[in-house]
Amino acid sequence: MKKLKVQDLIAVGIYTAIYFLLMSVCLLILRFVIPGFHNLFIPAVTALFSGIIYLILLNKVPKFGAITIMGTVVGLFFLISGHFPLAFLPNMLCALAADLIQYKTKLKGNVRVLASYIVFSFGLMGPILPLWFMKNAYIDSLVARGKDETYIAGVFAHTSNLMLGLCALAVLIGAVAGLGIGSRLMEKHFQPTIQSHKG
Question: Which segments cross the bilayer (predicted)?
Answer without folding.
Answer: 12-34, 40-57, 64-80, 114-133, 162-181
